UniProtKB/TrEMBL annotation:
Upper taxonomic lineage: Bacteria, Pseudomonadati, Pseudomonadota, Gammaproteobacteria, Vibrionales
UniProt key word Iron-sulfur: no
EC number: 2.7.13.3
Stated name of the protein: histidine kinase
Top-level taxon: Bacteria
Organism: Vibrio caribbeanicus ATCC BAA-2122
Keyword Transmembrane helix on entry: yes
Amino acid sequence: MNSLEQWLFKQCGEKLTPLFVLLLCRSAWLGVIWLFFLADLAPISISILVVTTFLHLLSIKQFGGLKTPLSRVMVGQISLDLIAMTLLLVFNGGATNAFVTALLLPVVFACISLKFWFCVSFTLIAMAAYSMLMWNMSNDIGHDTHMAHHYMAMWVNFILSVSIISVVVGSMARMVAKREKRISQQRERQLREEQILAISIASAQVTHDIATPLATVQLLYEELKDQYPEDPLIRTGESALRDCATQLNQFRRQIDVIRNGTPNWLSVKEVLDTFSDAALLYFPQQKLQLPANVPTGKIWSDDMLLPALVNLLQNAVAANQEASQNQLELHCYERENQCIIELKDFGFGLSQKQLQDLGYEPVKSHRGLGISVFLSNVTLSRLGGTLELENHHAGGCLARVYLNYKRMTDEAVNH
């Protein structure tokens, strides 16, 4: 049996979707009708069978290769099965036909592949179809009390069966879908953590490799400054070396912050003031428009929040420079226990592929690998926040940051 399962999986692969199975089952019951029951069908059933077969072949051509069919495709295919089966039963014995329980099949596929309300709708439609067949049952059978009770029992059994299938199969399908979603999220989170670990190891190695040469250069610089104290080039190099040492020490402090993990509540105004100072220091050529009103509460933050916001700022500045713009807009407001910070640039925006991947994995582009936005998203996730990127309708890209927010009492605000 294991060999058979492996062979089927190898042959079908990713094609084994609910739509693929539905088309396969429809091919089976259409083939059985054409081969064995065609002579016993009513004349009008031949026309129904021809139309159904034509639509089935058209469905195979149009949708047979889809790996992730849309809901409307599945709704159309299940509706086709339900309508074709009902019409064939209407003209071939109705509720007395032995194959009347085939009306269960569309309900099963609806419960497996569609959302809750579609499942309920197809269940009710199948019940109505069987009830209609019972209502139109011939009077001769209706006067036979024993047979009438028999077919009534069949109808009750169908109602119970389709209800149980709808509840059980639908619930199991939703449970499986939720489990698959959790597994997929866990896999993505694990992959993201592995990427972060790789970047962290590389950064730590670079820091270690830079520290010793930087100390050597610092000693050489001190000797040169003693020998040529008035040389303007040497005085210019002092600030560059000081900036390198400052950035290296700051990076070490950030590593300590990540290792210790000590977030706390900081006022929104304090965070935005620090951010605007950093923008003025790092990008003096850009004009950052600050919000007129700032929420008076606090956000859940640590020392890594500012570098995360500066990374987003750096990408916005790069987009502006590419479009020869120097305007940036910053908005901040509260909504539903969240503080929302929006940073808008006036560049050319992002492609749909970049909008989907940027922030969740390093993305290659002509401006870099997208690592800064990726790390910013990781920092925000660690603080319980989220990052959204979208193209603004007026042009440019809008980075929207959601952070946990706590309102301050009037006494705390006044204090």
